Amino acid sequence: MARLELIDLSKRYGEHAAVAGVTLDVADGEFLVLLGPSGCGKTTTLRMIAGLVEPSDGRTQIGGTDVTYLPPWRRNTGMVFQSYALFPHMTVAENVAFGLEMRKLAKAEIEVRAREALRLVRLEAFAGRLPRQLSGGQQQRVALARALAIRPDVLLLDEPLSNLDAKLREEVRIEIRELQGQLGLTTIMVTHDQEEALTVADRLVVMAEGEIRQIGSQRDLYERPADRFVAGFVGRSTFLDGRVTGPGEFETAGGLQLKCRDGAPGAAALVLRPERLHLGGANMDNRVPGKVEFVSYLGPVLELHVRLSPADRVLVQLPNRGDAAPAVGDEIELTWHRDAGMVFAE
Ligand SMILES: Nc1ncnc2c1ncn2[C@@H]1O[C@H](COP(=O)(O)OP(=O)(O)O)[C@@H](O)[C@H]1O
Ligand SMILES: [Mg+2]
Predict the structure, then answer these.
(1) To pair with 39 at 20 to 30 A between CA atoms, which of 101, 109, 112, 187?
(2) Nearest CA to ligand 1 atom 13
(3) What's the CATH code of the domain at 21?
């Protein structure tokens, strides 16, 4: 168990900065999730922490010790890859023992640890099987056991669930979270699945183009996104182009006059979360007539695309209360509080 610190960590490949000055302080036992689009530097960051990629600049500290230039087997990090990366010709037990043999532990100790790790992921009964005799979910649990067997100070999970189908993914992510909690393991998990990120994280980090854009709780990222990118990446939203015309006043490209949170005067985007828009409703700051252009029935919620002007269309989510839903072509009135409108300068 240990605190993990990244200090201005960078990796350049030629002219290209894969990771550009990442500074991050992960508390002992914390579960941190790295979120960001493909190519933003998530894997490179994890690989630098594991010692698989040498940084161009900056430092990594685990438990207060500088490990920046230690080889992977001299720093106590366990890593799980998206592809499982199991050796096909080795049994489950041999796969799990692999990292321990690399570390030159005594044979008896290796056996004890491998068995313990397989017990943690509930696969003791499968020790003698080959990876191909297991399901995808089981293979990924073997990969997890292999990472846990070395009793890592830091657990690194690189999109570990993305090859599993949706239902299994939900189960395994809860398992991972519970296990991490029991063991008190400092953990960084990379995912591009927002729901997964929001479900398991103590804190989240949003990256783009090699840099950290925001660090915070689920609520911080959703309610107070630091910039346009985070607003668009975390949760769903409608972006309306236009300009801030006065304190808390926004005029859309289509000429609608709306109340919003404060923002700097000038060209800007107004960002609206779909569940913050309502049909009718009293005491709202904004009240705009519109026409329903598209309806999706998603079970618990209905999603509407509503045309407010020739240039302005918004996404609306309504709880499904079982009564008559608006239909395509209906004329409705949308209302929302000014606080629901976040403004980002161009
Ligand atoms: N070994 C490498 N050589 C050159 N470029 C690389 C190498 N590894 C990663 N990159 C580049 O660095 C960027 C970040 O990659 P990566 O960390 O894999 O992103 P992510 O995991 O967020 O999808 C990408 O533009 C990728 O093409
Ligand atoms: Mg990656």
Answers:
(1) 187
(2) 18
(3) 3.40.50.300
Q: Looking at residue 168, what is its pLDDT?
A: 82
Using DSSP's 3-state secondary structure scheme, residue 121 falls into coil
Give, using CA atoms, the residue closest to atom 7 of ligand 1: 13
325 shares a domain with 249: yes
All residues with CB under 5 Å from ion ligand 2: 43
What tens digit of pLDDT does each residue of 195-253 get? 889 889 999 999 999 999 999 999 999 999 999 999 999 999 999 999 999 999 999 99
From residue 225, alpha-carbon distances to 127, 196, 257, 265, 271 in Å are 46, 19, 23, 19, 10
Pocket test for ligand 1, best of 13, 40, 192, 233 (most atoms within 8 A of CB): 13
Give alpha helix (H) positions in the chain: 42-50, 92-102, 107-120, 136-149, 166-183, 194-200, 218-223, 228-233
Name every protein residue with a CB atom under 6 angstroms from any ligand 1 atom. Answer: 13, 18, 36, 38-44
Please identify, by atom number, the ligand 1 atom nearest to the C-alpha of residue 47.
Answer: 17
250 Cα distance to chain centroid: 31
State which ligand 1 atom lies nearest to the alpha carbon of 45: 17
Total count of domains within the chain: 2
Its domain, for residue 305, covers 236-345
Tell me: the pLDDT tens digits for 117-157? Answer: 999 888 999 999 999 999 888 998 999 999 999 889 999 99
From the CB of residue 321, how many other CB atoms can be counted at a distance below 10 Å?
8
Shared domain check, 242 and 170: no
Pairing of strands 154-158, 186-191: parallel
Question: pTM of the full predicted structure?
Answer: 0.90
Burial zone of 93 (CB within 10 Å; 0-12 exposed, 13-18 middle, 19+ buried): buried
